[in-house]
Amino acid sequence: MKKFTLLFAALLLTAPVVSLADSVAGCASEGDNWWSEERAIMGTEVRVELWHIQQAEACAAIEDVMLELERIEQAMSPFLPTSLLTQLNENAARRPVTVGEELYNLIAHSVEFSAMTDGAFDVTYASAGRFYDYRKKVSPDADALAQVIDAIDYKHLEFNSRKYSIRYLNENVYVDLGGIAKGYAVDRGIEVLISKGFTQAVVAAGGDSRILGDRQGEPWIVGIRDPRKEDTMVAVLPLVDISVSTSGDYERYFERDGVRYHHIIDPDTGDSARDVRSVTILGDQAVMTDALSTSVFVLGTMRGLELINRMKDVDAIVVDGNGVMHVSNSLLEMVATK
Ligand code: AMP
Ligand code: MG
């Protein structure tokens, strides 16, 4: 992967670190014709930053990206009573529900990741996952879990591609796209900018980012935080034209009796996956890096890196349960040749 070799050579250059600064009201200048805005969408902080010589056009484009992400949230949030996903969850155990092409395709794409990851990625995880409340420190007891554990299985989703409808073959199935929808939204946001002719931008939604182009001839510098120390970086990567997703057990969690209950669920147990602390995936599209970061988190260091090493143009950085960092083969080769 020549692209990465060049990027690592650029590590010595100083360039701005991608960071989610404190929310600024509205579209703001970052200097040198860079413009940015942050907004709370899809339960996270969305940040759009782009280069353009004209403020009005730059800010209008950022607004269009925000509107696109808000549109996706309206369709795909499991928390909004009017969303298509909520209609699916409320009715699909009784009858096929027509969800339209976009949601149908994203759920069908999720199932491809399920097959690819031996079921580690499974949007029906929420059949059990919905009974956790990390803010209130609530987890389902063994009896409650036993009643819904069989419902976690992507094979319970029956697809009708002519009608764009989906039916649940088990009455306790509940779907949540939290492991893939932000990446999908980030890709859509970048597509909005590409269609308007922008060539340098970043769209980030929480842990999922996509970088379009470079930063005036220099790479973006992306920091990967230490899962146990917010202000410390375990790696700093110079990147252009790429997507980066991080899944971590520090994002939404509580601790009880020394055990960390967090938001990434092992579909086999309905309990949090605990082999690793964080996973970062690098690849072309954010929908893929998002799904794979969650997948590798569930698979753990060994099986997760095996999967990534089999894939082309995808890399991973895993911080395991002891805080030790592991990287995929092609990243390792690049570091070794430096
Ligand atoms: P991420 O931060 O991208 O890893 O996404 C975490 C989110 O993915 C969680 O908040 C859940 O909404 C969802 N999720 C948790 N476990 C799974 C799983 N095994 N498969 C698919 N999605 C999951
Ligand atoms: Mg993810």
What can you tell me about this protein's structure?
The protein is of the alpha+beta class and 338 residues long. 34% of the residues lie in helices and 27% in strands. It contains nine helices and 16 strands. The strands form four sheets. It has a nine-stranded antiparallel β-sheet with strand order 1-2-3-7-8-11-14-15-16. Strands 4-6-5 form a three-stranded antiparallel β-sheet. Strands 9-10 form a two-stranded antiparallel sheet. Helix 2 (55-76) runs antiparallel to helix 7 and helix 7 packs across helix 8. The protein starts with a helix and ends with a helix. The model is unreliable at 1-24 (pLDDT under 50). Bound molecules: adenosine monophosphate (AMP) and magnesium ion (MG).
Q: What sequence of helices (H) and strands (E) makes up the elements?
A: HEEEHHEHHHEEHEEEEEEEEHEEH
Multimerization state = single chain
Q: Low-confidence parts, pLDDT < 50 over ≥5 residues?
A: 1-24
Q: Kindly state the mean pLDDT as a whole number?
A: 93
Which structural class should the secondary elements be placed in? alpha+beta
Briefly characterize the structure.
The chain has 338 residues and is of the alpha+beta class.
Keywords:
9-stranded antiparallel beta sheet; disordered N terminus; 16 strands; 3-stranded antiparallel beta sheet; 338 residues; binds magnesium ion; binds adenosine monophosphate
